[in-house]
Every structure is written in C-alpha cells, then in structure tokens.
C-alpha cells in the first residue's frame, strides 16, 4: 500500500514538473518571438519600401506564436502576459533601465572574457597547426630500438585502413662548400608530396617536382658490403657462420624442417608472433630467394650452398588455410629443433661471425679473407649519379653563407653527403659521397636552423636502406587516432600536431573556466539587483495584484505575469550584454591588430563566439530571469484580493 502511494506521489510530481518545464520552454520561445516581432514591426516603419516583406514576415511570426501559445479555456495567453509585463516595465523606465543594465553588464563581462579565451585558443591553434596537419602523424623509431623504417615498413603502413599517403624522409649531414667557405648542416631527402603536405612553401622560387622514392635509373653505388655479396664463400654442409638473433618478417609463415635442406621433412611453421629468436646461422642446401642468401656459398666441388638458421622454436601446423598451435598429447605447444631458410627474416644481431675463404663469382679468382668479417669504416662513394640536382634552402642557410635572398635563385653550391648509423644496415658503416653540385630553386621562410631539401632519390641512391622518419597522411581526421594506435602497436613512436592542439585546448579550457568565474561574480551582483527590483515592484503593485484577482485573474496567472516580467528583464539583459561583450572584444581586437600590423605581424583575431556559447548565454540569461522571479511570483499568489484592495 505504501509503495503504491509512493508511486502515485512520484507520478503526480513528475507530471507537475513536466508541465512546469513545458510552460517555461514556451515562455523562452515566446519571449524571443516577441523580440523578433517587435524588430520586424519597427523595421516595417523604418523601411516602407520593404513593408510588404516585413508584413509577410510578421504574419509568419504571429502564426508561429499561435501554434506555441495555446492557453487553457478562459485563461489569458502567455504572449498577452508578456506584452502586459513589458508595459509595466516601461511605466517604470528608470528602474527598468538600471535593472536591465546591471544584467547587461554581468552578461557582457562573461561574453567579453570567454570570447577572448576562445579567440586566443583559435589564434594559437591556427599558428601551431593547419587543417591538413590534423590528418598527419610523424613516425619514428624509439632510441635503441632494433626495428627499422624501410620499404617493408612503408608497405605495412600502406595496408592500414584509413591511410592515404606514406611519405618517407631521410636526414643526413651535408658538408656544404660555397665560395671556398665550408660548413656542415642538415639535409633532408624528401619528395614533392612531402613538401606539399608539410606546407613548405618558398617565399621565392619553387619546390622541386621529383616525387620518386626509388630511382628510375641505376644510381646505387657499390659499397664495401655489396662487394662482399659478389663473393661466394667456400664451405661444407653444416659449417657454422655465426650466432644470430633475428625476427621473422611481418605477415609471413616460415617452414621449419628437420634438416637444412628444402627436401627435409616439415616439422611445422613459425611467424613473427614469436618475437626475437636466437639461433645459429649455418651452411645448407641451396634454394631460390630474392636476397641471394640461397646461393651465397659453394662447396669445394663447386655445388652451391645457402644460408640456413638452426633454431629451437614453438611450432604451428597448417589446417584448411589456417595456422594453429601444434600441441602434444598433454595439450602443450610442441617445441622442436629445426632449420629454416634465411628468407624474409631480419637479423638484429651477429656474434662470432666466420666466413672462411671466398671465391669471386664475377672472375673466379680465389681470394683469401680474414676469419672475422672486417669492420667497414669510412667507405667513400666514388661517384654519385647525376640527376636534376635541385635544392630548396631556407633563410638560415642564406644567413649562414651570407647570400642575399634576391640573388640566390640559380646559384650553385657543392655538397658532400655523409650517411651513418641507423640509415645503413650496420651502425659501423659510413658512406660519404663525392662532392656534387646543386642548384638553388627556392627559399623557405624558416630562419632558425640552416638546412636544405633535396629529392629523396638523391640520398637513397647512396645505398641508404632505412629512413629517418615517415609521415602518415590519413584520409580523414577521424581516422588518425586508430591509425596511430595500430602503428604504435608495431613498436614505433608517433607524434602529431593533434597532441599539441589537445594540450592547447586543455590549457584554454582552464583559462575559460577562470574567466567564466570572474564573469559570474559580476552576474551574481546584477542578479541580486534584479531580485531586489522585482521584490520592491511587487510591494508597490500590491493593490494592482488585488485588482487583477478581483477581476477574475487566477493566482497561477498572476504568478505567470511576474515570471514574464522577470524573464523579459533577464532575456533583454542577455541579448544586449551579448552584443556589448562582442563589440567590446572587437574594439580590443582592432587595437591589437593595429599594433601587430605596425610590428609587421599582420592583423589578428582574438574574439570568437561559437554558436553553442551564444545559445548558452541566452539560456543563462533566461534562467536568471526565472530564478529571480520565483520568490516575487510565489508571494504574489499569496496576496489576498480583499486585503490587497485595502493596502495603502
């Protein structure tokens, strides 16, 4: 019984609350329709030539008002109560102006402070990031990481859903010689697409058109290590080459056999889920592959040998085009000693490498090598292939070499490229090009660090296998987060200007909160003034309230009349305050723009009022009107008509 009574009570109050919410929603709409109708009627008088247009617009507004304002039987329309409230306000103009003015100042302070907060955020974000950059992310390897950015990585990234472009970058040192003055500076090997996506626009000249990532002509110069690959090692089946650590290439299943031969029994399969594997590199039967490992050695009788990896690994089995763990009778995954051909594997570490004697495949002369692979240092590239040899430099480049900007286009300089470290297969390698002449075709505005850009294939032609960085461009900004997660899952680091923008937005969000609190202090003061005005107005109009009730107006209708008056004051103060705050911000913006133009920065925009914020301000001013009108409206319903008529 108690539960039923409680449910009935909750249902009653819920319905009552819904009715009140609907009433105030209609009040909100009717107040702003009233303002719109007032402006239209005034405009019809001010612009008689357009009177027919304003007349039609007025009819449409009245029709909309009739649809919203449907009073109960024998009750006045809320729109009529709003008109009556406006007449009451105009009868006490001085008090109305002061009350609305206080509300206007409170709202204008909030609008002024927060609009500047939004404007400064937009200004900083626009200076930090372009719209296109919000779809981009730079990919690098972590310090000390054994994974590389190379052609296989590019292929992997291109297979990720949502990726539009994958743009590699090679960063090397350039020894620049200009008019017998030498200096070292950074050189970036990039494509035309990279320059365009990075918004690298010359202040004079142009960017190069070269967009190749692999040279169309034979540009690769032979290095000491490539020379070693032309020599077949003389060995016997089963001879050890080195202790190695390696990983299987992505999306690859390798066969594990019981002997180092393609005719050996298949024990199972492995893939890169295992991670790094320790094993022994040995000589076994030859096989066909793309890297030449399958025919890298010969036996004394002239038969060919290939490199195999002896390992102990967990095995998988193939069933109906699927790979499942190979389990023993107890349900544990089977581990076995086996051999895999050195195909699509990445060697991450060599230990105790022994090659023995070799024979030069090209001329069949016998050559004796040291037992250990010699350390390769300072390998000089005798000649670099000639191309268009165009370079885009920055202003810092010109300042360092003391070249006037208006004289640089078409000038040439010599550069020697130095490539070391992670860009090559071995950190102990060093490649240095022969001096080559480049022609300057463009100048970028950057004046911080001297650098220049050359076509990607120019640096790639030096034998570079790995890249310094890769820029990912997504189809859409919304795809970037998922793309970055997938790339980071592969062990790479990603950085995007989106991270910086998020930090800026977080900072300015806090700034707006502080500014909003300051504005609400001013609004609270004006709210108290408005509450005081309505309370005093009620006392002065006690006889009027009694007369209205004596004429048949219900207490609820008297309450709505006072609500209409408080809502009108609040909404009017909100509209004027919104306009005043915006104009005040624009005045400050013009003053700062004049100063920035004098300093050569150009005009700036520091005022921004988003539409959601505008709607929020209008709702806030409406709610202030409702809150300040609650007490006077409630007291008005308690006034006795008889006592009110006797009130002096």
Features:
648 residues, nine-stranded mixed β-sheet, 4 domains, 23% strand, alpha+beta, six-stranded mixed barrel
Any overview of this molecule?
There is one protein chain. The chain folds into four domains: 1-66, no CATH class; 71-127 and 504-645, no CATH class; 148-221 and 379-490, no CATH class; 229-367, no CATH class. It has 648 residues and is of the alpha+beta class. The protein is built from 15 helices and 25 strands. The protein has helices spanning 2-46, 51-68, 78-91, 93-128, 151-158, 192-197, 224-229, 395-401, 456-460, 480-489, 497-540, 542-550, 555-598, 611-637, 641-645; strands spanning 136-141, 163-178, 181-190, 204-205, 231-234, 240-248, 254-257, 266-270, 277-285, 297-298, 304-314, 316-319, 322-325, 335-341, 345-351, 358-360, 366-367, 379-380, 390-394, 412-420, 430-432, 436-444, 451-455, 469-474, 492-495. The radius of gyration is 40 Å and the shape is elongated. The protein starts with a helix and ends with a helix. Helix 11 packs parallel to helix 14 (611-637).
Sequence-ordered SSE layout with sheet pairings:
Elements: H1 2-46, H2 51-68, H3 78-91, H4 93-128, E1 136-141, H5 151-158, E2 163-178, E3 181-190, H6 192-197, E4 204-205, H7 224-229, E5 231-234, E6 240-248, E7 254-257, E8 266-270, E9 277-285, E10 297-298, E11 304-314, E12 316-319, E13 322-325, E14 335-341, E15 345-351, E16 358-360, E17 366-367, E18 379-380, E19 390-394, H8 395-401, E20 412-420, E21 430-432, E22 436-444, E23 451-455, H9 456-460, E24 469-474, H10 480-489, E25 492-495, H11 497-540, H12 542-550, H13 555-598, H14 611-637, H15 641-645
Parallel strand pairs: 3-23, 5-10, 18-21, 19-22
Antiparallel strand pairs: 1-24, 1-25, 2-3, 2-20, 2-24, 4-22, 5-16, 6-9, 6-15, 7-8, 9-11, 10-11, 11-14, 12-13, 16-17, 19-23, 20-21, 20-22
């Amino acid at each position: 019984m108690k539960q039923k009574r409680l449910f009935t009570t909750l249902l009653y109050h819920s319905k009552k609350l819904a009715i009140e919410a609907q009433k105030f929603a209609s009040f909100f709409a009717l107040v702003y329709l009233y303002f719109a109708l007032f402006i239209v009627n005034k405009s019809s008088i001010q612009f008689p030539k357009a009177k027919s247009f304003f007349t039609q617009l007025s009819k449409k507004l009245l029709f909309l008002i009739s649809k919203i304002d449907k009073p109960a039987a024998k009750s006045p329309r809320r729109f009529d109560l709003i008109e009556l409230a406006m007449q009451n306000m105009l009868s006490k103009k001085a008090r109305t102006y002061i009350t609305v003015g206080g509300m206007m100042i409170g709202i204008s302070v909030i609008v002024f402070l927060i609009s500047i907060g939004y404007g400064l955020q937009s200004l900083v974000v626009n200076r930090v990031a372009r719209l296109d950059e919000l779809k981009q992310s730079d990919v690098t390897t972590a310090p000390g990481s054994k994974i590389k950015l190379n052609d296989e990585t590019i292929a992997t990234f291109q297979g990720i859903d949502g990726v539009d472009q994958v743009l590699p970058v090679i960063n090397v040192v350039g020894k620049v010689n200009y008019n017998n003055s030498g200096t070292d500076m950074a050189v970036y090997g990039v494509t035309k697409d990279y320059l365009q996506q990075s918004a690298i626009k010359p202040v004079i000249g142009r960017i190069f058109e070269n967009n190749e990532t692999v040279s169309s002509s034979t540009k690769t110069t032979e290095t000491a290590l490539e020379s070693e690959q032309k020599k077949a090692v003389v060995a016997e089946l089963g001879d050890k080459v080195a202790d190695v650590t390696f990983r299987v290439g992505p999306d690859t299943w390798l066969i594990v056999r019981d002997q180092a031969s393609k005719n050996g029994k298949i024990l199972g399969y492995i893939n890169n889920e295992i991670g790094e594997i320790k094993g022994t590199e040995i000589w076994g039967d030859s096989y066909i592959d793309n890297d030449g490992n399958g025919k890298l050695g010969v036996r004394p009788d002239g038969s060919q040998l290939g490199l195999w990896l002896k390992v102990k690994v967990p095995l998988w089995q193939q069933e109906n085009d699927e790979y499942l763990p190979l389990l023993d009778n107890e349900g544990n995954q089977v581990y076995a000693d086996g051999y895999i051909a050195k195909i699509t594997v990445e060697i991450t570490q060599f230990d105790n490498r022994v090659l023995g004697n070799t024979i030069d495949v090209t001329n069949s002369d016998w050559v004796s090598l040291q037992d250990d692979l010699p350390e390769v240092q300072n390998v000089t590239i005798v000649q670099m292939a000639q191309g268009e040899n165009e370079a885009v430099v920055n202003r810092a480049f010109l300042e360092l070499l003391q070249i006037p900007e208006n004289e640089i286009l078409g000038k040439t300089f010599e550069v020697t490229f130095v490539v070391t470290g992670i860009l090559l297969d071995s950190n102990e390698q060093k490649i240095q090009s022969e001096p080559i002449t480049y022609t300057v075709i463009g100048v970028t505005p950057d004046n911080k660090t001297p650098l220049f850009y050359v076509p990607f294939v120019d640096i790639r032609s030096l034998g570079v296998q790995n890249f310094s960085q890769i820029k990912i461009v997504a189809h859409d900004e919304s795809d970037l987060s998922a793309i970055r997660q997938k790339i980071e899952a592969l062990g790479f680091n990603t950085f995007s200007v989106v991270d910086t923008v998020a930090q800026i937005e977080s900072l300015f969000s806090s700034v707006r909160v502080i500014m909003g609190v300051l504005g609400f202090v001013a609004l609270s003061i004006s709210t108290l003034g408005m509450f005081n005005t309505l309370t005093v107005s009620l006392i002065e109009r006690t006889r009027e309230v009694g007369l209205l009730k004596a004429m048949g107006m219900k207490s609820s209708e008297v309450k709505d009349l006072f609500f209409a008056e408080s809502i009108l004051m609040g909404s009017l103060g909100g509209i004027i305050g919104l306009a005043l705050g915006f104009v005040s911000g624009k005045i400050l913006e013009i003053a700062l723009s004049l100063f920035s133009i004098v300093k050569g920065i150009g005009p700036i925009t520091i005022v921004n009022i988003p539409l959601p914020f505008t709607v929020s301000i209008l709702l806030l001013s409406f709610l202030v009107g409702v809150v300040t009108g609650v007490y006077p409206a409630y007291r008005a319903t308690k006034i006795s008509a008889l006592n009110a008529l006797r009130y002096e």
